[in-house]
Amino acid sequence: MTDYELIRSKRRTLELRVLEDGRVQVRAPQRAPLRMVQTFVDSRRQWIRDQQQRQASRPRQRWQDGSTLVFRGQPLTLDVSPGRWSVSVSGGYLQVRVAEPDSETAVQQAVERWLREEARPLFADSIERQFGWFARQGYARPVLRVKKMRTRWGSLSAKGYINLNMALLHYPPAALDYVVMHELCHLQHMDHGPGFHALMDTRMPDWRQRKHLLDQPLYQP
Predict the structure, then answer these.
(1) What is the residue range of 191's domain?
(2) Could you tell me which residues come within 8 angstroms of residue 77 by beta carbon, excluding any fewer than 6 positions away?
(3) Do 40 and 135 belong to one domain?
(4) Which of 24-33, 36-45, 211-220 has the lowest mean pLDDT?
(5) CB under 8 Å to 100, separation ≥6 — which residues?
(6) Residue among 46, 38, 50, 48 nearest 14 (CA)
(7) pLDDT value at residue 217
């Protein structure tokens, strides 16, 4: 039997998550019977094992001179040296200047600050390029929020926000565009039923190949 943490909330469906440390979470409606929850977990046992193996094999990011950081699908070598805070790409290097170059914490904070600054215009551009069709259908443009998310690449809230995972910056631009299109399609179909997939096929015929890019193991912060 698979061990899991059960979280009940005001939701209508069951949701299964495998966290970075391999722990399993199940989110369930307040009144969902335990037998139903257990049956749901048992039916996804192989998927859980696959996800746990994937998390265990994913290398951890190091924040020191000479380490590699993947940015938009391309590996960059960290070039860390003392100086006033600055982070920039030069050729195949990410040049990082911090007051404490031997501190991985200081380097990580500097790079993550830079990543957050990079994320907003890049994510906004993807939304801008893909929103035209939805605007013509009468939908309001969702407000972008950039987040560090443990288990999701993105989400669309009923309050009009599109939340995108900052970790998408590590993947090729095609993967970011896929996640954005996925969330925009939820403007018309809030579930993942046939209508949603038909719209995805129409708006982005190669979305399955793009989705596969997110299955590739990369160094994660």
Answers:
(1) 68-213
(2) 66, 67, 68, 92, 93, 94
(3) no
(4) 211-220
(5) 82, 106
(6) 38
(7) 65
| Number of domains the chain contains | 2
Q: What's the residue count for the chain?
A: 221
Domain membership of residue 39 (yes or no) is yes
Residue 158 belongs to some domain of the structure: yes
pTM of the model: 0.74
List the structure tokens of 75.
Answer: 């590996």
Q: Within this chain, do residues 45 and 72 fall inside the same structural domain, yes or no? A: no
Beta-carbon contacts of 183 under 8 Å, excluding residues fewer than 6 positions away, are 142, 154, 155, 156, 162, 164
Rounded to an integer, what distance in angstroms lies between the CA atom of residue 76 and that of residue 71?
7
| 81-139 confidence digits (pLDDT tens) | 999 999 999 999 999 999 999 999 999 999 999 999 999 999 999 999 999 999 999 99
Domain membership flag for residue 220: no
